[in-house]
């Protein structure tokens, strides 16, 4: 991925991603013919110009289009749009043009749910407007959404994770009669201070191709039965998308390997009653010094009991838990946890 | 209570309190002879000058000294110091002199736990350094405490509640061998937008004495068997402390009745397996438009199961829950919830 130069002249790259997930619907309930994938590719590419990134690879199945971007990934399903971008990209700048494209080409006329989230940046001062401060991001999101609620999970003065989502009141009639939501869940593991030997795999010096890095690191074994689209950057850095034709699930991993600012993110919506095994495999693979763990699950998800399980998990091997927090939103339960190797 | 004049010339008073609670101990474990109440009264009064408030009333029993202040309350027990002050007071400015007094007169040499918390201010711009922003308060606290962790519960862009506490790692040997902690719990209800008819009780126009306001409002029935020290300000405003000689418990209520910025806080450490009845009585008494609810309970507290109970309580009568969050700290579990009357 592209390197930025910090104000002190030292090369720096912000691996921490901004993650935007939007679910669309129709006010008349008749959204069967609507599909975000009807938006022409060229229009999506123009949208990404505003975000300051571009498509570098693409795979798809009948349930989801998966793009590897110059800065992270984009997943477009029938009614769910996911844009995850790192570096100094500006994903919230695309909200207005995205809404216009969705209305014009996809047929949806309402946003059902929004999740904008990110870990605290290592260098917020290098970000562009409105991403220098969460308050600015929230102000922009509030100008689009009526029921937006902004949260900061974890420790404000150390490692934390910001979330903006819609949290309408129970009593809001408009939202009440939607019926049973489809099962949905998202697991994210945001890792920092990673093992330099593992990180070396994600350099051109040590791996001659993305496939070699995927295989050597053990990424290919993390979630089975995924069609993998991987990319190894020059001189270092790695991105991969995985999609499953069986259930329409995705996974995505992004690696910033430089020792001074190493960062790896893992994200997937694979439905599981327990994420302990997946989490353990991810930790063994990347060997982070510390990580943020987030699990979203709605009431109908197989992962609905994960908060209880994580509550009991005060350590994963050498990684000890410092923080665990739960939020109950109208449609989703969220668990946030922070672990680090002791001594941190 | 004293009124401040806002920058726009309109009278304004910040009812929202800054709440500082510190537990002291001795590194050698031998603290039986130590007592915060050995600090001379005149030294405490000098301390309060730094905070910009003063003592206006005092009661005590063999377990706790309870002071009504010109801006809220102070409770001094053997090893627990509580300072709760509203308006534009500066409680964090007293940390250093407090530590010196504690060492010199009380005999403790270590801070076992700290809780600094407050709701978001209505007018942060009117506060004095370091209270204009939570980040500044945290920076000052971090200069005193090694294991400090700062949190923001609730919605950053609407109603939220800040907390700074010590959250040392499980593996920290120094803290691990303390044995079983004494049961402890704190319930706070921070109410805004209150019923003007109820608020009128707390004016000199409608009540001729504090005792009349306490009786007419129903405050005297909220928690039974308390020795009450109440104060009605001129022309309006009300404070009360209650202490129980039976179990050393306290309660404290502060009322800012002006319609433009009405605010009432209720706090108590009475141990209960369920707080539903107390909460309901407080809500019926004050009729707030919205309120923040926080419950701290350690593992040995009778209130340890309150988080589960509150999880199931999506409403108290007309007050609907918007938010509920849980944090697990090393020694305490915290539940935060926000409710408002619908439509808010």
Describe the model.
Two copies of one chain form a homodimer. With 344 residues, chain A is of the alpha+beta class. Chain A has one domain (18-169, 183-341): S-adenosylmethionine decarboxylase (4-Layer Sandwich). Chain A has eight helices and 19 strands. The longest helix of chain A has 12 residues, at 95-106. Chain A binds chain B through residues 134-135, 138, 142, 148-152, 154-158, 167, 169-171, 311, 314, 320-328, 342-344, and chain B through 134-135, 138-139, 142, 148-152, 154-158, 167, 169-171, 311, 314, 320-328, 342-344. Strand 18 (319-328) of chain A pairs antiparallel with strand 18 of chain B. Chains A, B: Its cofactor is pyruvate. Chains A, B: The modification Pyruvic acid (Ser) is found at residue 72. Chains A, B: Belongs to the eukaryotic AdoMetDC family.
Keywords:
19% helix; eight-stranded antiparallel sheet; 19 strands; 8 helices; alpha+beta; 344 residues; polyamine biosynthesis (chains A, B); homodimer; 37% strand; nine-stranded antiparallel sheet; S-adenosylmethionine decarboxylase
The succession of helices and strands of chain A, N to C, reads: EEEHEEEEHEHEEHEHHEEEEHEHEEE
Structural class of chain A: alpha+beta
Can you count the helices of chain A?
A: 8
CATH topology of chain A: S-adenosylmethionine decarboxylase
Shape of chain A: globular
Helix content of chain A: 10-25%
Assembly category: homodimer
Overall mean confidence score, pLDDT of chain A: 93
CATH architecture assignment name of chain A: 4-Layer Sandwich
Q: What's the level 1 CATH class of chain A? A: Alpha Beta
For the largest sheet of chain A, list the strands in their spatial order.
Answer: 12-13-14-15-11-16-19-18-17
Low-confidence runs of chain A: none
Distance between the termini of chain A: 28 Å
The largest pleated sheet of chain A is described as: 9 strands, antiparallel
Main interface by residue count? A-B, 32 and 33 residues
Return Rg of chain A in Å.
19 Å
CATH superfamily caption of chain A: S-adenosylmethionine decarboxylase
How many structural domains can be distinguished in the coordinates of chain A?
Answer: 1
EC number (chains A, B): 4.1.1.50
Keywords (chains A, B): Autocatalytic cleavage, Decarboxylase, Lyase, Polyamine biosynthesis, Pyruvate, S-adenosyl-L-methionine, Schiff base, Spermidine biosynthesis, Zymogen
Catalytic activity (chains A, B): S-adenosyl-L-methionine + H(+) = S-adenosyl 3-(methylsulfanyl)propylamine + CO2
Active site (chains A, B): 72, 86, 239, 254
